Structure of Saccharopine dehydrogenase NADP binding domain-containing protein:
Amino acid sequence: MFASSLNLARGSTRILATRMASLAPGQRYDLVVFGATGFTGQYVVEEVARVAEKERTERKTPLTWAIAGRSEKKLQSSLVEARKELGLSLDDVGIILADVKDNDSLKDMAAKSSVVINCVGPYQLFGEPVVQACIENGASHVDISGEPQFLEGMQAKYHKAAEEAGVHIVGACGYDSIPAEMGLVHMIKNFKGELNSAEMFVRTKSSKTTSVHTGTMESAALAVANRNEITRIRRELFPIPLPKPKHKIKKKGVLHKNEELGVWGVPLPTDEPVVYRTQRYRYEVLGQRPLQFQQFIGLRSPFQGVGLLIGMAYFTFLCFFSWTRKLLLKYPEVMTAGVFSRAGSDRESLKALRFTATLVGHGWSESLLDGSDQHTEPPNASIKVKVSGPDPGYGATSLMMVASAMTILREKSSIPGKGGVLTPGVAFMNTGLIKRMEDQGMTVEVVE
């Protein structure tokens, strides 16, 4: 028994040594998936494998990549699962042992990476050491955080250092907030005139019942718990407010009907802070008119809206107080009636789920010379853009995250500036990210 275990350990060491030997001294992997053994991380590993195979067979451009995490055994299991799902060998995938609580291991990982794909959340708890290690060791970084405290905190603290290091730190590269950001990029490029505002309505459709993994719940709970911190960060980031628009978009109530789309909307402003940061860049750096943006969940009936509002109020209550938050984090399935679960949804259920984000923009058919100039007449033109894809939490999120990392890797010269902490809308406004997303199964289109 002991001899058998010893041989297995030696075998694992040889596997690791063999894989690491393929990386020459001073060489970096193109992509490293950190947190590859987590629920989302598994989907990201499989998406990188698909992209790497396509790069090899269609573009004839080899892609070197590795997976990183605390346990070699679990990392091996992640590759076994990916092989089973994809039918690819994955024998050339590197393995790096790294722990978010071990700064030396993070530095070693970053030094071996061109772009780190960080899947370890909640980012408010575990994100900063990874960002810092990347900046100090010359690696760019993408994540799927939807936590404004983390995203804006990293910009306030590390933008200058990232710029000096020549690396790009781009957060919110998943369902939060790529559909909104790239939907607006596509809208601006295709609108003949000058946009004033946009509203986004997100809908999901599935033939099966699904649950959300508790990792998403934990990030949302922390965002609510630390809500007061964001005020301090924003005072530091944005001491001067944007100019007030003459034609201000009307604020909607907690439940309203959009007649253009025929859907009922409930406000869920998760992408609004990211979009706001992008619009500040457009105004302050590019001299363009900042867009006003509002975001909603789209529903078929007002009764669905009322039910959703009750559910959101209940979840906010649970997150608001420390004792209820502890109960939520300890018993998520019970406290949310199965909406959130530690197991998450099975693959077949997720394959039956799809999302659509429809953005409705309004503006003027003619542009003014400067972004600070004001139109005298109200908006007289409109445009609709639809972004759609597979299940938003994992399928589409992994697709968009990997596409973002590939864009940094392959199109670094098209990203504004030599580095910095950027939003997706700033980083990818002049790149082929949308084409990469479409190549992997999503659609971004102007609709009538």
In short: The domain at 2-143 is CATH 3.40.50.720 (Rossmann fold). The two ends are 69 Å apart (CA to CA).
